[in-house]
Structures are given as structure tokens and as C-alpha cells.
Protein 1
Amino acid sequence: MKTKKRYLFPADYMADPSVHVFNGRIYIYPSHDWECENVENDNGDQYVMKDMHVLSIDGDPMTGTVTDHGKALDIADIPWAGRQLWDCDCAEKDGKYYLYFPLKDRTDIFRIGVAVADRPEGPFIAEPAPMLGSYSMDICVLKDDDGEYYLYFGGLWGGQLQRYRDNKALESACLPEGAEPSLPSRCARLSKDMLQFAEDPRPIQVIDEEGNPLRADDPHRFFEASWVHKHNGKYYFSYSTGDSHLLCYAVGDNPYGPFVYKGVILTPVVGWTTHHSIIEWKGKWYLFHHDSVPSGGKSWLRSLKVCELTHDADGNIITIEGTDE
Ligand code: FUB
């Protein structure tokens, strides 16, 4: 059966939607795509985002009016900024909103910054320096039921994760190959003030049913775009597989995993990247994602989409076709 999808914001190119319900309203924290003259390459030089807007939806994701709250953060206002403001996420604690953003510093190294606001739509004021010990990109924040917050991050190739092992920079980048274990995403609990890691980031292992980490040459291995949602007490870690263009998921019993690989959420969309978030709204589940159909397939000009997502009676996610409209 075809899955009905909705383009959320045809007025502009936006991507990488991180979505949360704050104060009974759906807020979207997307990347803001720009036309660019850079040649498309594996380093992601074509993704030249300079600012980000916050969107919100008045009611149902499939039909509610979408509001653009305008520019919420601008590279020009971030003291340590180099270039490329990629996928952000936002968390609320005690009435304050914390926006976590990956950005290259002036030496072209991705760091993670925090910006704070009094309202979910911003404007967000950036802290003067990146989070200590942060690296790579593609942020997701989980607020767990016990009140702890966990920040997930990491991405291969242009996301620079292959430049690190055990949270230390390598002399030269090293991507595992073939039967070697694939590189994992990372997770760190956040400090009480939400501004730093409370611990060293830990690797997030995706394992098969026998307990082995997925291999580097497995088309279902982690590449980027971590997201975590909870369903029936289980932790669902979902992610993009990058060069095999899938959204996949794995299930675990705690925020750090390990997560047992379960299957494909979304088959390839039009455009190189695929990236998403999953939320529950009034008893139904929704997959927010993007594709490049409206730009005629330009990978760096993406458009936000949403569709319903279903967990079956055993908790498995039913696969959605990326090209369904
Ligand atoms: O938007 C830039 C990058 O493209 C993101 O960080 C990746 O997840 C991919 O969507």
C-alpha cells in the first residue's frame, strides 16, 4: 500500500528535520539549504547552510498550517564560526530551549555548539565556544523519562567521524573496510546546565542478532543522522546509511545500546542524502524526512516531508517507500 506524504514547506529548501512537541505544538528544527556553486563532492562542500529557521505546525502534521518563525540562528552571530551549519536539534529544560548545532570552526573542523532561547522558536543566543570535547555532526537529543538528556552525534565522510577513535583525533582519517566493524555513532549524557557533555561520548553499537557489530561493507550500517525515539519502553535508534541511501533502525533497552538491527524504515528517496526524525502526535507516529524532488534532484536543495509511520504489534516498523508521494 502506498504511503501518503506531505511536503511541509514548499516556499524554501530545508532538510534534516529534527522535530519535537513543545507546549502541545510541533516544532521543526531543519537545516536551511542554499543554492551553491561548489562542485558536489564526498566532503559535502555543496551543503553551505548559513542560518536556520524554526518552523511549527498548527495541529495535525499531515494537514496543519505550517508557520515559519523566521531566522533563529545565524552563522554571523556565532563567535567561533567557520562554515556549514548542518543538522541541529533542540531540547527543553525548565522553560529554556537549547539548540545544539554542528558547525565547522575556522580550521574547518566540525564542533558542536549550543545556543539558548526562552522560546522554542528562538531567537537562540550562541555560547561563546563549542562544547568541550565535541566533534563531528548530525545531532539528536533524547530527553529520557528519568529527566536525563542524551546527545547523539556523528557522521562519516564530510561528517569527519573517521578522523576520531576513542574521542581523540587521529593523525590521519581511517575508514574501516570490508568485514571490519563499522564506525559507530556516539552518545553522551548532558550536564545539568545542558551546556556540556557530562561524560566522555560512548560508541553506539548496532549489532546483528548474534551480537556482532554490523560490518563496514554492510549496506545497513550506520553512516549519519542519528535519531532516538522510545516506543513501549524500548529505545529505537534510527539512522541514515549514507551511500546506500536507506533509513534503518535498531532496538535496545537503554540510551547507550547496544541496539539490535531490525530493518529499513525508508527506502531511497530522490537525492543523495536521507535524514529524518520520528515523533508521536496524538497516538499516531510520524516520519519527518526530506527529498530532492522539487529541486529536480539537486542533492543540496532539499524539501521537507512528513508521512505516518507504523509500529506493528511486535514493535517492528513497517518499511515506507521513499518514492511514494
Ligand atoms: O545537511 C547536511 C548533511 O546532509 C547532514 O548533516 C546529513 O545528515 C545530510 O542530510
Protein 2
Amino acid sequence: MSFTLPDLPYPHDALAPYMSRETLEYHHDKHHLAYVNNGNNLLKGSGLEGKSLEEVVKGAFGKNAGLFNNAGQHYNHNHFWKWMKPKGGGKIPGALEKKIVADLGSIEKMKEDFIQAGVTQFGSGWCWLAVKDGKIIVTKTPNGESPLVHGATPILGCDVWEHSYYIDYRNRRPDYLKAFVENLVNWEYVAELLAKAK
Ligand code: MN3
């Protein structure tokens, strides 16, 4: 199985003003495409050809850094585009809201902890909501890693590499994270992943 760049699930200008057309043209059309192309080249002869993307990511972790970085980022970005939608944020579906409150205390606390994880990820990486041992946790990872390689299932991730926010927010990563949580997150997709993770 080779990797392919998925289309964005919305037009490039649909997330403005929170994420601009220019950011998505660079981030999706160039950065994600590079992970796809590099990943396909590195997949050849790796012994992981024919495996699913998740299996490639897990199989390459700690063993084949080049392949892992590109396949990991391909996996992360496939979801990242779907973790956002025009007029996102807002109401969280009932079952997901209940589970967040039960495991993390409150919606406000979840948002605060998620943003804090993104702000404190030193250098490039991601902050996450993931399901581990049946509970939702907040976590962060460097570079192309995800909770998938730490025994958990990601249900929401925000890319805090500078390429994700520098055009729109310059150095203001906290403002980008706040806009992501309040105005971009597709909570229906998060709820869908939570249902599958159980
Ligand atoms: Mn990225």
C-alpha cells in the first residue's frame, strides 16, 4: 500500500480567518505532500510494504527514523484536516462531553490542559486528546510522534509545528491553539473516533 495525499475536506479558504488559505496551501499542498512522497520512497525495501498506515507507523517507531517521521506525519495530518471544519468549536456532542467531564473534570479544564500541552511542547510536535486504558488523557509528543506509538488512540490532535501557524499568528502559538479549540475543532469527528476507540 502506498501513501496518497487526501484532498482537504473543505476549500482552502474555508477556515479563514482562523487558518488562512495561504497556510493551508503550504501546509496541506506542500508539507503534507512531502511527507507522502518521502514516505513512499522510504517504504520501499523497509519490510513494511503492504501494511496499513497504522502498522507502518508502529512498526517503524524506534527502528526506522526516516520512515517513521514521514509515515507518522502522514497519519497525523490525515486526521488533522478532519479534526477541523468551517465554523468549528462550539457544542460538543453529548456522549463525548460526558466522557470528557468524567475523565478530565470539565470542558473548560480539558481546553485549558490541551492548550497548555501545546504551548509547552518545546519545538515541533503535537498536543493531543487520546484514549488510554479506557480513559481520555491530555498529552503531547515531539516531531511526528503520536499517542498511537505510546499505547493510546488519538482522538484529537493539534499540530504545533511552526508551519501550522507562523503565517497567521507569527510567534503567538497560544493564540493559534485558542483559535483551534474555540473556532476550528470538528467535535463530531472527535466523537466518532472516541466511539471507535472504546
Ligand atoms: Mn504539519
